[in-house]
Amino acid sequence: MTTLTKTEDTPAPTGPGAFLSVRDLRVQFSTEDGIVKAVDGLSFDVERGKTLGIVGESGSGKSVTNLTILGLHSKKTTTIDGEINLDGQELLSASEKEMEKLRGNKVAMIFQDPLTALSPYYTVGRQLSEPFMKHTGASKKEAKGRAIEMLTKVGIPQPQTRFNDYPHQFSGGMRQRAMIAMALMCDPDLLIADEPTTALDVTVQAQILDLLKDLQQEFGSAIIFITHDLGVISHMADDLLVMYAGRAVERGSVREVIKEPQHPYTWGLLSSMPHLGGDVNEALMPIPGSPPSLLTPPAGCRFHPRCGFTDTVGGSLCSTERPLLADGRAAACHLTAEQKQTIFIDQIKPRLG
């Protein structure tokens, strides 16, 4: 069974204006090979009407975190500790019946692959209408009217006709728009977007991002935007959380983190991206090595086996002691503030242009 326990640490106070507060979240999965420590001591806030971007490589814990918020993990194989508070309601202690009332209503999710998230057996209109009727008690006629209204808002042409189409009759971009319409049917206060533009071409991707920003302004929803693409996040987010191997390693406003990153992992992410105005013939600098196994994660800083600055810290601190992530603008790294500044100015900034 899923084990829900309070942590020994006193949770940090909810930030001003925070609609969602996550404190010391730990998520572990039982597998045949052992215990997977997918999320390990994660804390963050999301404010009303704001977008929090979460970035990191595959396996960093981004999607696991947000599936935990929605209560979608298997109860047989998952252990969850910590606190998740949504608008005053503690979610980890909520019953499945309470979570069913929240999902699709107060909290909604846009999944990465709409073709697998949408059922091929039912029309798009039915898949939009039925959850709306369940949560609001609306009639079939009222639900159809709302669905057509939302399909119109997300830019689906001929929504009255498309209402009766099946997902396979939609293009990739239209399916993603339909997923957004479904997520917004009940005016959710929190919208979780899990890499919603990964499979789309650049033009459609830009249209979807602009659509999400416009709809956020209209509905005032808080958004958690999950991606591995810092270019996308710079366009979408107000605040940014960088995750690595189940832990948060850096956070701040999106401008602060992208313009003046403080963690070696963030430096690596930015250095491995092409930049406008850069030399097209200049080789990108990938992060060496691979993410660690979360069955047996490294002690100390989990990034230290791939980090090129452990010698600057000196001794065995990086491999033995976990660096903490302070509140506000911060990076979980044993480098001193002066060392970070010197390395960034001398080595990292020239790469970024």
UniProtKB/TrEMBL annotation:
Family matches, as Pfam families: ABC_tran, oligo_HPY
Signal peptide: none
Chief site of localization: membrane
InterPro entries: AAA+_ATPase, ABC_Ni/Peptide_Import, ABC_transporter-like_ATP-bd, ABC_transporter-like_CS, Oligopep_ABC_C, P-loop_NTPase
Molecular-function GO terms, alphabetical: ATP binding
CDD domains linked: ABC_NikE_OppD_transporters (cd03257)
Entry membrane topology: Peripheral membrane protein
Compartments where found: Cell membrane
Keywords, comma-separated and alphabetical: ATP-binding, Cell membrane, Membrane, Nucleotide-binding, Transport
SUPFAM superfamilies given in the database record: P-loop containing nucleoside triphosphate hydrolases
Domain ABC transporter: 22-270
Family label: Belongs to the ABC transporter superfamily.
Protein name: ABC transporter ATP-binding protein
Source taxonomy: Bacteria, Bacillati, Actinomycetota, Actinomycetes, Kitasatosporales
